[in-house]
Design a protein that fits this description.
With about 130 residues, this protein is of the alpha/beta class. It has 6 helices and 4 strands. The protein starts with a strand and ends with a strand.
């Protein structure tokens, strides 16, 4: 499998490049978007957030209060690392499923936070950095 990882800071053009690649017919796995979908739909992740990070980051309807969660984890590096460890494992598993079942042999991915894990899983990657 060949993976092209697109990384860069806020406003560097990752989304623009990804959209260009989609237009050219390349599949793009957007780790950031998938992480949000996974977090919203996974009760175990929500339970882990509530019990290990911040109980009031999950509202009465079971939705993640991202503003509250962000305020907590961005003020505490240890809690941010814990949140990343909870979410990144689920994103890696989703990436594997998508790569095998949907994308076949070509897959483009971007997200700085998970990039190191993907490199360790799949070895060689072409990195497009801004």
């Amino acid at each position: 499998m060949k993976i092209t990882a697109i990384t860069g800071g806020i406003g560097s053009g990752k989304s623009v490049v990804s959209e260009m690649l989609r237009t050219m017919g390349y599949p793009v796995y957007d780790c950031d978007s998938r992480a949000k979908v996974i977090m919203d739909g996974d009760e175990e992740i929500k339970q882990a957030i509530a019990t290990q990070i911040c109980g009031d980051a999950i509202d009465a309807d079971g939705n993640i209060d991202r503003k509250r969660l962000g305020a907590v984890v961005f003020a505490d590096a240890i809690l941010l690392e814990l949140l990343n460890s909870i979410v990144h494992g689920a994103v890696r598993a989703d990436f594997r499923r998508q790569a095998l079942s949907v994308y076949g042999l070509r897959l483009l991915c971007f997200m700085r936070a998970v990039l190191t894990d993907l490199l360790m899983m799949y070895g060689k990657c072409l990195l497009l950095k801004s």
